[in-house]
Amino acid sequence: MSDEHSGTNVVWFLTGAALGASIALLLAPQTGTETRRLVKRRAVEGRSALMRGGREAYEHGRELYEKGKELADEASGVVERGKEAVSKVATRVRPAKGSDEAAAETT
What we know:
The chain has 107 residues and is mainly alpha-helical. The chain has helices spanning 2-26, 32-93, 99-106.
């Protein structure tokens, strides 16, 4: 329920911010042409910032992917070496066939 409440607060905040920005533009001492230029320039700056941030996020994600891939490869090698070690130990510990019978006969 608190998630719904915080979502509603965000919507009202954004609505208020948009309304305030609209009123500020209408009451600004600039002409309409100057205001449109300002809005266009800010939109271009915002788009550039978003594109830059997107590229940086993509590159960071790519680096993390490569590191994860390397770690997975290393882990796979460790698992394989572990399996080999367990297999070697298991063959040394297993009694030869028929040794159970021989041991039973001696006791």
